[in-house]
User: Fold this.
Amino acid sequence: MSFLSIEHVIKDYEEYRALHGISLSIERGEFVCFLGPSGCGKTTLLNIVAGLHFPEQGKVCCLDEDITYLSPAKRKFGIVFQNYALFPNLTVAENITYGLRGKEWSKARCNERVEELLTLIGLPHIAFRYPVDLSGGQQQRVALARAIANNPRLLLLDEPLSALDAKVRVTLRDELKVLQRKLGITVIMVTHDQEEAMALADRIVVMNEGRIEQVGTPESLYLKPSNRFVGEFIGSMNMLTIPQWAQGQTIGVRYEQVLVRPATEEVLVLPYTLVVRIVAWHLMGAFYRVELLMSDQSTQLYADIPYQHFLDQKLAEHSLVAITIAPESWCIFP
Assistant:
């Protein structure tokens, strides 16, 4: 029995169909990311799981209980939004305990829970501050504490890190993973950031135009994408048509799998080797991204070369070089 099952869910809006028969199972304790471009249906699907929207067809079950039309309050799920949604007139402690009111929590128990949660999120001394006095990262941590205050059976995160600057986003991303493992809570997170999904998720659900393209671990999606959309959306991938290698098919190759070397006689006789021209390169931090042009003068491809290896090769702009692409690195698409 799956912890959560989504069965043949269809969602229509006035002018278009947002979800086309989505089916998915999620196990207890999993961290699952809904990943895709804007407008692909990932937030709509999250809202249906949360009970904020209802589908035209299909159902959502939690531990075999049909919760499709159950109110959000009765689902016992926690949710964190992109904009934090903290009450500006309430202190941090009051925000965290807001959802506990009317649930027979004594004041002493609420205070104890606030102290426990603020320690958990690494902000033990801010209970009596107001949201306006907090940074974006601190506000999002408080929103997370509020969402888990009542021990929800499922935590839903809607682009929770997208409003933060890059360094804070990475820090909070790491903290979120540690917190999820510590609590053992099941998490569904919506994101359009592939790096975020790869770093956090046990499984990623790649969505496009209201459909699921592929479900799998970060590693399986990166190494074995099921189609061109997944290959190009998860990481960076060259799409090459080389008839002598794969007649009538497209070869997908990750940038780091393109081996660039001087075009010596010894190298040029190696299998799966071509001569290309260097167009330009860009320093990306730990590696250089090299732009290459094939002999047909129209096909561009890219190679990622580690920083020191690039310097050692002493490559010259606009020079001819050899590239080797081993068949075991290919992803073949029709």
